Amino acid sequence: MSAARDVAYRCVMAVGDDDAYANLVMPGLIDQARLDGRDAAFATELAYGALRMRGQYDAIIAKAARRDPESLDPEVRSALWIGAHQVLAMRVPSHAAVSETVDLVRRERGQGAAKFANAVMRRVTEKTADAWLTVIAPGTSRAAKAVRFSHPEWVVGEFERALAADGRAGEIDALLEADNAPARVTLAARPGLADRDEVVAETGGEPGRWSPWAVTLASGRPGDLASVTEGSAAVQDEGSQVAAGALALARDVEPGERWLDMCAGPGGKAALLGAIAAQHGVELDALELHPHRADLVRASVRAVPDGTVAVHVGDAREWGDEGTYQRIVLDAPCSGLGALRRRPESRWRRDLDDLDDLVALQRALLARAERLLAPGGILAYITCSPVVAETREVVSGSTLRQLDARDAVAALTGTSAPEWGAGPHVQLWPHAHGTDAMFLALLERPA
Ligand SMILES: C[S@@+](CC[C@H](N)C(=O)[O-])C[C@H]1O[C@@H](n2cnc3c(N)ncnc32)[C@H](O)[C@@H]1O
Prior knowledge:
single chain, alpha/beta, N-utilizing Substance Protein B Homolog, Chain A, Rossmann fold, 2 domains, eight-stranded mixed β-sheet, four-stranded antiparallel β-sheet, 19 helices, 12 strands, globular, binds S-adenosylmethionine, MeTrfase_RsmB-F_NOP2_dom, methyltransferase, Transcription antitermination factor NusB, S-adenosyl-L-methionine, NusB_RsmB_TIM44
């Protein structure tokens, strides 16, 4: 069996067995197996594709095996997902995909299971992906879309609601499709620490579409770049750059301002805001509940001039002195459903019940943020989720005045405010903006 397929299999199994994150385990597996660039890309596509599309592949396997995929051994089910992905979504010849899958299953579960896998894979290869979709996902119901685009049905429902609330009813297929396309890697060349043109030259990438600091990479491992190693640039979705940058640009920075990042780990926004704070000679407190994530914040801000960012460990609901901060970013813990492109397994890890707890936490954090804000201060409420309950419904419970976030986003991105929807908040979308589905509201405490 090929080393790349073995790496993909180990990754899929680690995600299933150990609750691992594919993007965290994959680099180690690739290094261990000493895959070259081409095989590493192949293994990554196999594993991420299988993890993303497993909802659709389970529906196909159920028909082909005439068995509930849940009843299969995890080893067999994982191997079949990877096999199905090769046949249905990549240009791997059927005979190779079948024999590699059978070899894998034989190694893991013996001859009987290999015979079964052989029969299932042969049936899978009998139809094209489109032909299978007419069998497993006919029509345009929510359930059919869930299978076709391999998302949990409740997530499709939440996305439909969020799109409709944003004047984008009818875009659901485009959104679900965008979630299944791997996101290109974007760096932030942190202002004052790195020069964007130099990072473009260093990486062979291109300037981003929205953020003045963004560099979009064609390919490659960003960890190997000098600017990333020293911390003057870092991987950061353009949506995150826009949301954090909008707070900095919402109005002129006055001397002596104090800024707070209430939920800072792992520190992407803290580093961007810290870099901007340093340019203005103002200070940023970065707070994080979990000590190990606070360590990540310290590492993330290492290139920001000393004395600008102070990292603290604590629960933001009980932290700080009231009326202290002129700017606060509350990048709230959320379902993460706006970042499904980057985390292939994450759509299957949440369920609707998680939302209630998250929303309660988001509301409590926002209530605390309101108190920590100085009169006249501004708060950015941000989520990497478009879910209505986590976004506009949380903000609508605030006692603060909502500013038109479109103005700050337009100023930052060199666009005009009406391009960013009906306001006053801004909702970014993978299919429309090529970013994660970040939500941004700017709230102001009356002076
Ligand atoms: C969405 S992430 C923030 C991402 C971060 N702003 C960035 O750009 O890298 C939310 C963070 O909030 C932290 N968190 C959760 N509950 C918290 C609380 N009560 N107080 C402070 N931080 C909390 C989580 O551990 C997590 O690191």
